[in-house]
């Protein structure tokens, strides 16, 4: 199989990629990397990604890529004529707005939401309770970001325009886990954000992947 | 019609300006004073609702986030000026990979150092020495990985200058000049050679001191 993805079905960054592969109806093999035994720090894995992070994509002998958003960009570009149009390459203005909102997720949304998800999902595994100071500080940041999203989504159905794109897709994994935390009201209280979330999280490509996102489930 | 670029004094904006020069695209700059809070004023927020620099206006197109703006111009003007995206889809993939490495691994600690060391007193808080030490440690580890990569490749994405290298310019310049941490670059042979190469490009020399 040409496309091999090294990662974990519960991982936010891995699933960012698997969702995009499903949106494109692409066949791929998901090769598990066991973070709990430190497999991502073994020399074998470090030879694929010296940063020791999942996921890593191998596309035949052509390329090995790490960084989930670089992988989704590569997949969306290489297979732009297949499956869902994720990057709007036929319209340069639409494509530009997709690029903007991809960066907003990366630089504004992710830094605020990931510490909250970490505190509720990862800290308990290490035997700790969620650090309320960290949660509170990031809830404040996320609140401000979501206020901008609410305004934007009152003007267009999706972030880059009236079309689903990679920009919306990138939000799925962290938000999925976030919605299981006590902070989910930040989304639920904002009608347009909530409607957008309900829409993008009901897409078949995501639902397929979400079945494996059982981190923290008892 | 020239591209209007807001906030030329700041690192993230300078990334965009380097790209525009490399692509031979004319621009004019509009100063934004972050210390005075101009980025939080309604006029500015109407352009960039997250209150960050840069934002650009190109005809009726308003774009923000430096790396998005760079990707837009690199693609739109692929056949003009420096080819920043490589010749194949695989080369482009490597550009994206190393831009993401800069965005998620290099930028956070170097940005923290910039705020703590250069802006603490201007912004009215006390610099956190532990945070500075921790950030320098994190940045050093990323630089070690850059060193490994650059021992095999002239530039980060391959044998061509790309947004992956470009994105490192502005904050690294501050690191070696104003922050007095040039030793971090010089201790690493390949990073040092790479730095000397990219920091002497005419595009960087043209924009580095703009205010």
TrEMBL record, chain A:
Subcellular location: Cytoplasm, Cytosol
GO biological process: glutathione metabolic process; toxin catabolic process
Domain GST N-terminal, first and last residues per copy: 1-83
Residue ranges annotated for the GST C-terminal domain, each copy included: 91-218
Assigned GO CC terms: cytosol
InterPro entries to which the protein is assigned, alphabetical: Glutathione-S-Trfase_C-like, Glutathione-S-Trfase_C_sf, Glutathione_S-Trfase, Glutathione_S-Trfase_N, GST_C, GST_Phi_C, Thioredoxin-like_sf
Listed SUPFAM superfamilies: GST C-terminal domain-like, Thioredoxin-like
Reactions catalysed: RX + glutathione = an S-substituted glutathione + a halide anion + H(+)
GO molecular function: glutathione binding; glutathione transferase activity
Main location, first listed in the record: cytoplasm
EC number: 2.5.1.18
Membrane-spanning ranges: none
Top-level lineage group: Eukaryota
Keywords tagged on the record: Cytoplasm, Detoxification, Transferase
Keyword Transmembrane helix: no
PANTHER family in alphabetical order: GLUTATHIONE S-TRANSFERASE F13, GLUTATHIONE S-TRANSFERASE RHO
Similarity comment text for this entry: Belongs to the GST superfamily. Phi family.
Protein name (Swiss-Prot/TrEMBL): glutathione transferase
Organism: Dipteronia dyeriana
Species lineage: Eukaryota, Viridiplantae, Streptophyta, Embryophyta, Tracheophyta
From TrEMBL, chain B:
Recorded GO CC terms: cytosol
PANTHER family found in the cross-reference section: GLUTATHIONE S-TRANSFERASE F9, GLUTATHIONE S-TRANSFERASE RHO
Enzyme class: transferase
Domain GST C-terminal, residue spans: 88-211
Record-given protein name: glutathione transferase
Signal peptide extent: none
Keyword Iron: no
Pfam families for this protein: GST_C (PF00043), GST_N (PF02798)
EC numbers on record: 2.5.1.18
Location in or out of the cell: Cytoplasm, Cytosol
Keyword line: Cytoplasm, Detoxification, Transferase
GO molecular function terms noted in the UniProt entry: glutathione binding; glutathione transferase activity
Stored SUPFAM superfamilies: GST C-terminal domain-like (SSF47616), Thioredoxin-like (SSF52833)
Domain of life: Eukaryota
Predominant localisation class: cytoplasm
Family: Belongs to the GST superfamily. Phi family.
Catalytic activity field: RX + glutathione = an S-substituted glutathione + a halide anion + H(+)
InterPro entries linked: Glutathione-S-Trfase_C-like, Glutathione-S-Trfase_C_sf, Glutathione_S-Trfase, Glutathione_S-Trfase_N, GST_C, GST_Phi_C, Thioredoxin-like_sf
Residue ranges occupied by any GST N-terminal domain in the UniProt entry: 1-81
Biological processes per GO annotation: glutathione metabolic process; toxin catabolic process
């Amino acid at each position: 199989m040409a496309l091999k993805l090294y990662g974990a079905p519960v991982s936010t960054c891995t699933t960012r990629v698997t969702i995009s592969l499903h949106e494109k109806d692409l066949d791929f093999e998901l090769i598990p990397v066991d973070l709990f035994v430190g497999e991502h720090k073994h020399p074998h894995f470090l030879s694929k990604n010296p940063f020791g992070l999942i996921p890593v994509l191998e596309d035949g002998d052509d390329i090995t890529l790490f960084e989930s958003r670089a992988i989704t960009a590569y997949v969306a570009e290489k297979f732009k004529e297949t499956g869902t149009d994720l990057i709007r390459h036929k319209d340069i203005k639409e494509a530009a707005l997709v690029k903007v909102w991809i960066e907003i997720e990366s630089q504004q949304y992710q830094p605020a939401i990931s510490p909250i998800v970490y505190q509720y999902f990862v800290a308990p595994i290490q035997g700790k309770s969620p650090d309320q100071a960290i949660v509170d500080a990031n809830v404040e940041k996320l609140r401000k970001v979501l206020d901008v999203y609410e305004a934007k989504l009152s003007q267009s159905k999706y972030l880059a325009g009236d079309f689903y794109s990679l920009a919306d897709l990138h939000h799925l994994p962290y938000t999925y886990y976030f919605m299981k935390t006590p902070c989910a009201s930040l989304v639920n209280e904002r009608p347009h954000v909530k409607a957008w979330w309900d829409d993008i999280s009901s897409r078949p490509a995501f639902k397929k992947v979400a079945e494996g996102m059982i981190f923290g489930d008892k | 019609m020239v591209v209007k670029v807001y906030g030329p004094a700041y690192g993230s904006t300078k990334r965009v300006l380097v790209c525009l020069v490399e692509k031979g695209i004319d621009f004019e700059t509009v100063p934004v004073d972050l210390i005075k809070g101009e980025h939080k004023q309604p006029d500015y927020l109407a352009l960039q609702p997250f209150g960050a620099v840069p934002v650009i206006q190109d005809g009726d197109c308003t774009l923000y986030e430096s790396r998005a703006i760079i990707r837009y111009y690199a693609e739109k003007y692929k056949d003009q000026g420096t080819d920043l995206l490589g010749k194949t889809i695989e080369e482009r993939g490597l550009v994206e990979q190393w831009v993401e490495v800069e965005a998620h691994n290099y930028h956070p600690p170097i940005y923290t150092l910039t705020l703590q060391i250069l802006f603490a007193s201007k912004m009215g808080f006390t610099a956190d020495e532990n945070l500075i030490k921790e950030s320098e440690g994190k940045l050093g580890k990323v630089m070690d990985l850059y060193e490994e990569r650059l021992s095999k490749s002239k530039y980060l994405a391959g044998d061509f200058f790309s947004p992956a290298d470009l994105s490192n310019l502005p904050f690294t310049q501050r690191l070696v000049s104003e922050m007095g941490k040039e030793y971090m670059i010089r201790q690493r042979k390949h990073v040092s050679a790479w730095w000397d190469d990219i920091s002497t490009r005419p595009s960087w020399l043209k924009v580095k001191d703009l205010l």
